[in-house]
Amino acid sequence: MSDPFIGEITMFAGNFAPRGWAFCNGQLLSISQHTALFSILGTIYGGDGQTTFALPNLQSRSPVGISTRPTGSGLSDIQLGEALGTEQVTLYQTQLPSFYVSLTGTAAIAIPANTSDGTSKTPTSNSVLSTAVDAAVGAEVDLYAPLNSGSSTTLAPFNANIIAQGTYTGTNQPVPTRSPYLGMNFIIALTGVYPSRN
């Protein structure tokens, strides 16, 4: 294999960095010991630029080609050394389409009743329709009685239309954005051929 360019990055399947290479883990290196590499990287990835400079940090990150966002491309403007992105995002209701459901149908409804005299003009949770008789015109009658106060019966069932509607919204939970992955080491050449500019 020919000598790599100084600053060249490649993937390595082993769990160590070969001689002349270093892991791309953001570590600081001495400028005085790696003058050639510093002249290529500068402080793009960190360091004070006086005594130290940093290697790119590709731990849990994917490299992406830099872009100056060509007009009409729909791509983001990405600068050399820019590190952005998260492994999950939280979606909010304003980012989600509304979800609306409507249900229609019919059901046969049987109304319970009993044969005892009514004892109340208003229903309660344990009352049913009952017998109510009053000869006076326009009289208010006791139409409801307790469920078990007389002989139980059921009025003739009848069909009723049912309409149910509802709108549902999310709960602002984090959503993972990471693609399927395989962990590998990125390594950078500390020594080799110094690259010349075109």
Automatic annotation (TrEMBL):
<protein>
    <submittedName>
        <fullName>Tail fiber protein</fullName>
    </submittedName>
</protein>
<feature type="domain" description="Phage tail collar">
    <location>
        <begin position="7"/>
        <end position="63"/>
    </location>
</feature>
<dbReference type="InterPro" id="IPR011083">
    <property type="entry name" value="Phage_tail_collar_dom"/>
</dbReference>
<dbReference type="InterPro" id="IPR037053">
    <property type="entry name" value="Phage_tail_collar_dom_sf"/>
</dbReference>
<dbReference type="Pfam" id="PF07484">
    <property type="entry name" value="Collar"/>
</dbReference>
